[in-house]
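Ticket #4471: structure output looks truncated?

Reporter: J.K.
Steps to reproduce: submitted the chain below (408 residues) through the standard prediction queue, then opened the result file.
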Amino acid sequence: MPYSRRHLLQLAAGSGAAAFLAACAGPGGSSSSTSNSDGPISFAHWRAEDKEVFEQIIKTSGSAVRQDISPSNDYQSTALQKLRGGTVGDAFTAFRGAQFLEIAKAGVWTDLTGKPLVAKYEPNLITAGAQDGKQLGLPYQLVFNTPLVNRDLVTETPKDWDSFLALLETLKGKGVTPIAWPGGDAANAGQLLNVMVVNNAPADDALGKIETGETKVTDDWFLTVLKQYQQLTPYFQKGSTGTSSDAALALFAQGKAGLLATGSFQVSGVRKLGATFPIDLLAPITTTADKAKYEGVFNATFILGVNAKSSKKDAAQAWLDKLSDPAVAGVYANGTAQHVTVKGVEYTNADLKALAPWLTKKTALAPRFQFSNLDVRGAVENAAVAVVGGKSPEEAAEAAQKVVDQKK
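Returned output as attached by the reporter:
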């Protein structure tokens, strides 16, 4: 469900001039701080682009923490297996949706209900970390899963599908790639699906209902989504279905693409590549203006938790307590260009301020995370990739529905 304008205005007022983000991507790596006699705790996450800022927090706080970082797609598929062993991820993160639920089913979350740190968060922003009345984890990041736009290249904001296609044609005519899309990176290829679905779906939860059989990939509304991907295909970069997230990011950062079809979590990556152009968010409105319910998509993710299998739960809890301090959360937010869910954070980052208006726009909760079965989600997302690769929408939908039927 979208936030109300009133709540978001209250949030903006309570946290200063604010705006936004974070969640997926990056090459792997790890780093260590000075350990104590028991050795540092392991902090498992997928945000390689946040490594330096976390290292700064580790050093200045005197915490004994080692970062164990995996690429987001690997983290999605292998984290639970590692966490169960208790040697990796004394403190850890999880994606909203399927991964959070999977870890809960395995009994790996430590219940944080009633802990003082929970009160430091905006309650409406941490529901993705709760289950059965228990606060198992704390979503740390507020992300907009809405394409980035280079405002030096794109000054208008189309309000309907035909106008959006016309914009892309204009960009193509200027010799610019209209949309950089990482179709070869499963973790990020599906980000575009969020904004392609929200105004086409008959209900806000229609995408997730594919898993239960209440809706189908072959339904008319989803075929419309796939047909629109077909229309977008000429405006993606050459070889888009094999393009990595890093390659798409570089194309956009170099000013060679008008839009980057991922989300606000990649703003810091664009800046690290030296881009100085103004960045905004721009979602394709897939209907006529009068039928559009949403202007974009948001998510609350990067769910912080303490590993119930760990022998260092107290130290892991202390690390989460540290990250939940508004001053420390401010260091993280401003250093990574990402909005956080902690109350009372002061935002000084220029990109956070520039994206502040998105706090009051009507945005939908990212639907791609409605799935609890990652195989089903993968099949649905792959249908869009298959269409861009040349399959007909009908053929791609039928193939995806077969996988869904097998997994039910």
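Triage note (M.O.): checked the attachment and the full token line is present. Residues 1-37 have pLDDT under 50 and may be disordered.
Status: closed, working as intended.
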